Amino acid sequence: MSPAARRRRKRWSTESCNCRRRSAGREPSSVADATNLQALGAAIAEAAGPAVQEVFVERGAELVLRTGRDTLVPLMLLLRDDPRFAFEQVMDICGVDWPERAERFEVVYNLLSLSLNRRLRVLVATDEQTPVPSLIGVWPAATWYEREAWDMYGIVFAGQTDLRRLLTDYGFEGHPLRKDFPLTGHVQVRYDESRKQVVNEPVTLTQDFRSFDFLSPWEGMTTLPGDEKVHQIRSERGQIEGPQS
């Protein structure tokens, strides 16, 4: 390789290192991120007025708004259509159960702005009977998430015409992610050999037939399937060779 080629390679590698160093120097700090989120929250609260009940930043990196059921849809339209916010997508809708509260459920909306590279969480509180307005008119993709929240928690969404079971079976009783839902459930499924079909029946867990193994799998496992031949060979070898001194 000629000296000119070696010098050319060294020059390009030097520029690459400088580029990485310059880009790393422009990375924003966490303090700057929290300040930007607080400024964004203040701008949303000013634009939305009384629709925003509370604004705060969690863990220094997550902007959260709290609103009411009556103001949910106007607030979401503002967040979607205002170019200062431009939250074009709803990424997820889920529920949280707080049984000790009067309004035990929180509906959590996670929004994303692709154009501005921002995320936002909106919280709405409700109880077991009071419905939350559906967002299918704002984001049609909300149908799937609202069905899931209704199936798992029993949260009702007003205006949602497709509230069907999504993750549980047809005829399932109750909502399994409520904290007062029994861990065993209400129904057990088994195959009935006499009827030649799968049957649903009430849960029966008899204490006498329960067995508790407190050993770890490695402590309780002395013989693996297929080791019988190995033990047989070792036994025969020991009989032939006799005990070793």
TrEMBL record:
<comment type="function">
    <text>NDH-1 shuttles electrons from NADH, via FMN and iron-sulfur (Fe-S) centers, to quinones in the respiratory chain. The immediate electron acceptor for the enzyme in this species is believed to be ubiquinone. Couples the redox reaction to proton translocation (for every two electrons transferred, four hydrogen ions are translocated across the cytoplasmic membrane), and thus conserves the redox energy in a proton gradient.</text>
</comment>
<dbReference type="GO" id="GO:0016491">
    <property type="term" value="F:oxidoreductase activity"/>
</dbReference>
<comment type="subunit">
    <text>NDH-1 is composed of 14 different subunits. Subunits NuoB, C, D, E, F, and G constitute the peripheral sector of the complex.</text>
</comment>
<keyword id="KW-1278">Translocase</keyword>
<keyword id="KW-0472">Membrane</keyword>
<dbReference type="InterPro" id="IPR037232">
    <property type="entry name" value="NADH_quin_OxRdtase_su_C/D-like"/>
</dbReference>
<dbReference type="InterPro" id="IPR010218">
    <property type="entry name" value="NADH_DH_suC"/>
</dbReference>
<keyword id="KW-0830">Ubiquinone</keyword>
<keyword id="KW-0874">Quinone</keyword>
<dbReference type="InterPro" id="IPR001268">
    <property type="entry name" value="NADH_UbQ_OxRdtase_30kDa_su"/>
</dbReference>
<keyword id="KW-1003">Cell membrane</keyword>
<dbReference type="Pfam" id="PF00329">
    <property type="entry name" value="Complex1_30kDa"/>
</dbReference>
<keyword id="KW-0813">Transport</keyword>
<feature type="domain" description="NADH:ubiquinone oxidoreductase 30kDa subunit">
    <location>
        <begin position="68"/>
        <end position="186"/>
    </location>
</feature>
<keyword id="KW-0520">NAD</keyword>
<protein>
    <recommendedName>
        <fullName>NADH-quinone oxidoreductase subunit C</fullName>
        <ecNumber>7.1.1.-</ecNumber>
    </recommendedName>
</protein>
<keyword id="KW-0560">Oxidoreductase</keyword>
<comment type="similarity">
    <text>Belongs to the complex I 30 kDa subunit family.</text>
</comment>
